[in-house]
Design brief:
The complex is a heterotrimer of chains A (about 120), B (about 475) and C (about 450). Chain A has about 120 residues and is an alpha+beta fold. In chain A, a hairpin with a 2-residue loop joins strand 2 and strand 3. The longest helix of chain A has 11 residues. Chain A is globular. Chain B is built from 14 helices and twelve strands. Chain C is α/β, with parallel strands linked by helices and about 450 residues long. Chain C has 14 helices and 15 strands. In chain C, strands 2-8-7-6-5-3-4 form a seven-stranded mixed beta sheet, with helices on both faces. A four-stranded antiparallel beta sheet of chain C has the order 11-12-15-14, with helices on one face. In chain C, strands 1-13 form a two-stranded parallel sheet. Classes of the chains: A alpha+beta (about 120), B alpha/beta (about 475), C alpha/beta (about 450). Chains B and C meet through helix 1, helix 2, helix 3, helix 4 and helix 5 of B and helix 1, helix 2, helix 3, helix 4 and helix 5 of C.
């Protein structure tokens, strides 16, 4: 199992061919209190870096992009009523969707945790 | 304070109606009849009046408070305009559409026509439509005209170029039209970076949209060049005229090279803001774009009377039901007539003096991202105060306790913790001095006692409101709460 | 003449201010505008005093002061506006304030808009309303765009019996959107809902209709609502607010999105504007409602308060991904609508609707009884109905206009083949004597 990161502050935890997707603590800091997550539909197919779903806070609305291409097989329904879970625990309980990965090669374009932390330091 | 719905008591009545002088016409069949009367409030007139009068007293307004909202031009609304516009309340717009009907509404038609000529002269354009109902609506109209122009020449364009300081409606309007947005960063000298602009221009650009002066309150001296470069690339140039209050008599966007402009009558031309509307956003165009203007258009006939041009093969169509927000047009017409040439010039001069005065007196206390003479508004940053954990929002809330409506905060987005101050020309030096003192006090408190700012406001009917809760537990209707 | 420019500062004060700025003259502050960009012309008339201005405006308004008895509608209705509406909406704190971005000092406007949203839901039988749009035509267009967003589909079925101006606005709005629009023409002044139902398929985002329609007919939309829902499409209905004092609500009939024009609720005719548009929907679609929305919340001390909410959708945050480019709403006009609805109240609105219905019913009979004239509407109407005349309706209207009667809206310009037809509107303001005089006048115009 490994966790990889994107420049748009998404993470993906890869277990075999399944990837669990969420956004990082840094993204959550930028957005503020999350008020709504527009969960994707199961069965939706996305290419790497294509918009997976939308997320809203009081001050901003953003798209969340798929870290790898795949097909959505499960979504975190708890976020419907409790979007604040993402604020509480963005990198675990606050997962957004699980995908069946169709292009593992795309992992080459992602960052390791250490590289991501360095990238974020460079932004600040 | 209770909602009017909470004051309702079954059986109370407000307005009385005359008895019918015709027989009852029976009933609607059951499948078309409303099952229960609409659950509207039931209150008597005295209660109604008390409720809304007290509600109104929970507002700051231009007539009660200094209201320096940048980019909104909150100037005094002359009361004579209200009386003047009220004279036209009874005119039915359909009358003009009836055969021979134009004869009966020559007054309103003439007003629309003459207002168009006045706005054309003020902005340096050739023809004007008064149909757009607000600034954003005017933008949409302008972009549709631009789109139609390119289509008529067999050109498909992909992009609209905007500076990164533009008002949010600019890219939203462009996106609604299906264009992709290209954003040009603002250079340290406070204007769209000319070199980056030149590089971004190509023949796939439909138009460049600029606010003039820009949203930092700065006039771009290269604007003529920008228009030329755009035209060389077969693109048109759109002027967001929201800031016209700064340059009346000193510069006309039409002369600078702009092809299309919208003006905000509720900003520059003193029509009341109404708590967020109604406004009006007439659009002016150069001759070559006139065939695309929306219909109907008011025209002058050869005998000097006024009529309607109902259809035009190249017109973009209809943007509104009839002639636009006529009541607002009437107010603006009255304003322009009352002020006249000298009055309008003086308006811009005084607006610019007032803004520069505030800028000069406050620059020792707040960071000024673009340290140069401004036009009718100035933009500070609360970055110095941020070091003490004080945000632009805290300063805004403190100003409320001092009796001032806050300036615009967090816009434009390119300035960190922006504070945009537009005093307008109708404010006295004494008012400006009081505001300046309050701003200086806020700066001092930020250093010495930021808690005061964080707690503000404390003198209003409510303290800071939980916006997160409002978005998470949605309740927009008293009849049913939407929180699940 | 003394100046009217509302600039209060005296020459001394201006001198002081210029000194603080460090400029030697006002002109210096405009040096940044190059001489090549100065105005080529600035020929405007001289200003005038308040007295002269009012005299000029009175002349303009009085230019044609022939009193016309109006039987015309077309989206704008001559209803009585209770005096209290002008009085309360004329409070300076309401009309000289701005959009309530700073909620703590705008609770007046915010609470009023929340009450307005509630009143619209009460009126239409829907669950969520926004804080108003520009007018009925643009509201319908926004409703169509909303249906496209909600369903993600790209086809629309449009009822040709909808107000022609609204349909034109709709087409203007949709011109740059990738959508297939199928308009179903009415048949002899009757909306063809069967043909509309037949066009609904899996790609249809919505069926769009109006009730009562432009010809005045009231329809039962439950059937077409069912047809739309069966295929996953929405029903969008434009309504006439005063009619909802007696007509079944679109909510009850199965509509998903309801729009309309609020002029008939406490706003003067004003030669066509300003007015306001309203839009309301089922609660699951609330995030796709365009424009501003006010929500209830609490402050730091637990006190109830109101704020603009769901703003992330609006143009100023999402920018190019906004639900719409709408910035201002028609706040003051919506406030007038709210005050009107509260002034007439639950029973009052029903009574007002009844008066309109009865007067129009009387007129429908009286005019339909004129030789050669027939009523085209097969079923019930509210306060508008369509007459078929034995000749060109435009000519008849022209004749009657000269005699001080605006007889109705001739349909030839909007519906080919209906040049002999006329839509007549009768509100509570029309006296029986006026209706009788109209019938007599019509007879004369046709036969003498």
């Amino acid at each position: 199992m490994e966790v990889l990161y994107t420049k748009e502050h998404e993470w993906i935890r890869i277990e075999g061919t399944i990837g669990t997707v969420g956004i990082t603590g840094y993204a959550v800091d930028q957005l503020g209190d999350i008020t709504f997550v527009e969960l994707p539909k199961t069965g939706k197919e996305v290419r790497q870096f294509e918009a997976l779903c939308g997320i809203e806070s009081v001050k901003a609305a953003s798209d969340i992009y798929a870290p790898l291409g795949g097909r959505v097989i499960e979504v975190n329904d708890a976020l419907d009523e409790h979007p604040e879970i993402i604020n509480e625990d963005a990198e675990d309980d606050g997962w957004i969707a699980r995908i069946e990965i169709t292009d593992p090669k795309g992992m080459e374009k992602l960052m390791s945790r250490r590289d991501y932390e360095e990238y974020v330091r460079g932004l600040e | 304070m209770e909602l009017i719905f909470e004051k309702s008591v079954a059986g109370r009545r407000g307005v009385s109606f005359p008895s019918s002088d015709v027989p009852r016409a029976g009933d609607l069949p059951e499948n078309l009849r409303r099952t229960e009367a609409a659950p509207l409030p039931e209150v008597g007139e005295p209660e109604l009046v008390r409720h809304f009068t007290n509600l109104s007293r929970r507002n700051f307004s231009v007539d009660t408070n200094f209201y320096p909202l940048g980019s909104c031009t909150m100037k005094y609304n002359p009361k004579a305009m209200e009386k003047a516009a009220g004279l036209f309340g009874g005119f039915h717009p359909m009358t003009a559409q009836l055969p021979g009907g134009e004869r009966f509404v020559q007054g309103p038609l003439r007003l629309i026509y003459e207002l168009g000529r006045l706005l054309a002269e003020i902005t340096g354009m050739d023809e004007v439509t008064s149909q757009p109902l607000a600034g954003a609506h005017g933008e949409m109209t302008g972009l549709m005209i631009i789109h139609a122009w390119h289509e008529s020449r067999g050109r498909r364009k992909r992009y609209i170029v905007v500076p990164d300081s533009s008002h949010g409606t600019n890219p939203a309007s462009a996106a609604m039209m299906g264009y992709e947005i290209v954003t040009i960063p603002t250079a340290p000298y406070g204007d769209m970076d000319l070199d980056l602009f030149r590089k971004a221009m190509n023949d796939e650009v439909a138009a460049v949209m600029m606010t003039c002066p820009n949203t930092l309150g700065l006039f771009n001296p290269h604007v003529g060049e920008i228009c030329e470069i755009a035209h060389e690339n077969d693109a048109l140039v759109y002027c967001d005229g929201a800031n016209m209050n700064a340059i009346m008599g000193k510069g006309r966007p039409g002369d600078m090279g702009f092809d299309v402009i919208h003006v905000n009558l509720h900003k520059t031309f003193a029509t009341p803001h109404g708590g967020g509307g109604p406004g009006a956003g007439p659009v002016g165009v150069k001759k070559h774009l006139a065939p695309f203007l929306p219909v109907p258009r008011v025209v002058m006939n050869s005998d000097g009377s006024y009529g309607l041009e109902r259809e035009n093969p190249q017109s973009i169509g209809r943007m509104a039901g009839f002639f636009g927000n006529f009541g607002i047009l009437a107010r603006a017409y009255a304003y322009i007539n009352m002020l006249g040439r000298e009055g309008l010039i003086r308006v811009s001069e005084q607006a610019v003096i007032n803004a520069n005065y505030i800028m000069a007196r406050l620059k020792g206390y707040y960071d000024l991202p673009y340290d140069m003479p401004c036009m009718h508004e100035c933009v500070f940053s609360a970055s110095r105060q941020l070091k003490h954990g004080v945000h632009a929002l805290d300063i805004a809330k403190f100003l409320i306790d001092k009796g001032f409506h806050p300036p615009t905060v967090y816009f434009p987005l390119i300035v960190k913790d922006a504070i945009m101050i537009e005093p307008t020309e109708t404010e006295s030096k004494a008012t400006l001095d009081a505001f300046i003192s309050a701003m200086i006090e806020a700066a001092e408190l930020a250093e010495k006692n930021p808690e005061v700012l964080h707690r503000a406001p404390v003198t209003m009917p409510v303290s800071r409101l939980d916006e997160v809760r409002a978005a998470r537990e949605i309740n927009v209707c008293h009849l049913r709460s939407l929180s699940s | 003449m003394s100046r009217a420019d509302f600039c209060p500062n005296t020459p001394d004060e201006i001198r002081e201010m210029l000194a603080a700025i460090g400029a030697r003259s006002v002109e210096e502050l405009f040096d940044v505008i190059p001489s090549g960009l100065r105005p080529r012309s600035f020929e405007l008339p001289d200003g005038m005093s308040e007295f002269e201005l009012l005299r000029k405006m009175e002349e303009l308004a009085g230019e044609n002061d022939r009193r016309i008895t109006g039987f015309i509608g077309g989206g704008f209705y001559d209803h009585h506006i209770p005096v209290v509406v002008d009085h309360l909406a004329g409070r300076a704190e309401f009309y000289t304030s701005y959009t309530p971005y700073q909620a703590e000092c705008s609770q007046g406007t915010l609470q009023a808009l929340y009450e307005y949203q509630t009143a619209i839901c009460a009126l239409t039988g829907m669950e969520a309303s926004n804080a108003s749009l520009y007018d009925g035509g643009t509201a319908l267009a926004e409703g169509a765009l909303m249906a496209l967003r909600v369903t993600g589909r790209n086809r629309l079925v449009i009822d040709g019996a909808i107000n022609p101006f609204y349909r034109r606005i709709l087409r203007t709005y949709l011109a740059s959107v990738d959508v297939l629009v199928e308009e179903v023409p009415p048949v002899s002044g009757v909306a063809d809902r069967e043909a509309m139902a037949a066009l609904i398929d899996d790609e249809t985002a919505a069926v769009i209709t109006q009730n009562p329609d432009f010809f005045g007919s009231i329809g039962d939309l439950t059937g077409i609502a069912g047809e739309a829902h069966a295929k996953g499409a929405l029903l969008v209905v434009s309504v006439y607010p005063v009619s909802l004092g007696m007509v079944k609500t679109p909510g009850e009939m199965g509509a998903d999105i309801v729009t309309g024009d609020g002029q008939s609720l406490g706003n003067p005719l004003n030669f066509g504007g300003p007015t306001f548009g309203f839009i309301a929907a089922r609660k699951q679609h609330i995030r796709n409602l365009p424009g501003r929305i006010v929500g209830e919340t609490v402050d730091r001390n637990g006190r109830r308060g109101f704020v603009l909410t769901l703003q992330a959708r609006e143009q100023h945050i999402k920018r190019h991904k906004a639900t719409s480019n709408i910035c201002s709403n028609q706040s003051l006009c919506a406030l007038r609508g709210l005050i009107f609805l509260c002034a007439v109240g639950r029973e009052g609105l029903a009574e007002l609707a009844g008066l309109n219905f009865d007067k129009a019913g009387y007129a429908r009979q009286a005019l339909g009884a004129v030789k050669g004239v027939s009523v085209l509407n097969g079923g019930p109407t509210f306060n508008e109905f369509t007459l078929a005349l034995p000749g060109d309706a435009g000519k008849v209207v022209g004749k009657l206009l000269v005699r001080g009667i605006a007889a109705g809206v001739p349909l030839g310009a909007f519906y080919p083949g209906m040049e002999h037809c006329l839509v007549v509107t009768v509100t509570e303001k029309r006296a029986r004597a006026e209706i009788d005089a109209f019938a007599a006048g019509l007879e004369e115009a046709l036969w003498s």
